[in-house]
Amino acid sequence: MARIGLVAHDDKKDDMCAWAERHRAKLARHQLWGTGTTGSRVKAATGLEIALLKSGPLGGDQQLGAMICEGRLDMLIFFIDPMSAQPHDVDVKALTRLATLYDVPLANNRSTADAVLAHLAN
């Protein structure tokens, strides 16, 4: 069982919900963590059990980063909106930096998330 973090920028939350719904059966076999709004939306759309953290701008990104540092997160699915400036960009950069530093698989879009999840399922 893998420990997976889920987060999406505002304009990507619908994509995250659709992706999670499509992979519901696979995701149900893993332990899921989500930032407040993303996790709540995915939970409502799929019925999956998701441990909710703070909203990203209110510390949820940093909570996921701490989990990575502590070895408590195996994979991060972070649907980033490359076309919109984010007011908490510093937190976003810190989170992606920690995933890279600690060699945690990081998927920033659907096709990468599909590939990483398929690898976990094997």
Automatic annotation (TrEMBL):
GO molecular function per UniProt: methylglyoxal synthase activity
Domain (MGS-like): residue spans on this chain: 1-122
InterPro entries to which the protein is assigned, alphabetical: Methylgl_synth (IPR004363), Methylglyoxal_synth_AS (IPR018148), MGS-like_dom (IPR011607), MGS-like_dom_sf (IPR036914)
PROSITE patterns: METHYLGLYOXAL_SYNTH, MGS
Keyword Kinase: no
SMART domains the record matches: MGS
Alphabetical UniProt keywords: Lyase
Residues binding substrate: 9, 13, 35-38, 55-56, 88
Entry EC no(s): 4.2.3.3
Record-level GO cellular component terms: cytosol
Active site per database record: 61
A GO biological process held by the record: methylglyoxal biosynthetic process
Catalytic reaction(s) noted: dihydroxyacetone phosphate = methylglyoxal + phosphate
Source organism superkingdom: Bacteria
Protein purpose: Catalyzes the formation of methylglyoxal from dihydroxyacetone phosphate.
Family matches, as NCBIfam families: MGSA, PRK05234.1
Protein's recorded name: Methylglyoxal synthase
Species per Swiss-Prot/TrEMBL record: Devosia crocina
Organism lineage string: Bacteria, Pseudomonadati, Pseudomonadota, Alphaproteobacteria, Hyphomicrobiales
Gene that this polypeptide is encoded by: mgsA
